[in-house]
Write a structure and sequence with these properties.
transmembrane; single chain
C-alpha cells in the first residue's frame, strides 16, 4: 500500500512531522502557562479536528493509488487532535469545567 511513496517523499514527510511536533510542543507549553479561554480553544480544536478527519476520509476514499497526500493529512489529524486534547486537559486541570 505505501510502497508507491518515494524516498524523497518520506524525507519530506518526516520534516513536516518534525515541524508539527515543534509547533505542537510550543503551543501546549504556552497553553499550560497562559490565561486562555479554554472553552473557545476546545471548540476551535474540535472543529479543526473534524475538518482534518473529513479531508483524510475523503482522500482515503477518492485516492487513485497515490498515498503521499494521505500521509500528510494523517499527520494533520494527529496535530489537530493533539491541540484539542491539550485544551481539554488544561481546562480540566485548572478546574474550568463547563
Amino acid at each position: 500500500m505505501l510502497n508507491s511513496i518515494a524516498r524523497e517523499d518520506w524525507i519530506g514527510a518526516v520534516i513536516f512531522l518534525g515541524v508539527l511536533i515543534v509547533v505542537s510542543w510550543i503551543n501546549l507549553r504556552k497553553m499550560s502557562s497562559g490565561k486562555y479561554d479554554y472553552k473557545a480553544l476546545r471548540k476551535r480544536g474540535l472543529m479543526w479536528t473534524e475538518i482534518s478527519v473529513l479531508l483524510f476520509m475523503l482522500q482515503l476514499i477518492l485516492r487513485k493509488g497515490d498515498n503521499r497526500f494521505l500521509v500528510l493529512l494523517g499527520m494533520l489529524v494527529l496535530f489537530a487532535a493533539g491541540q484539542w486534547l491539550g485544551a481539554i486537559y488544561y481546562d480540566r486541570k485548572l478546574g474550568n469545567r463547563d
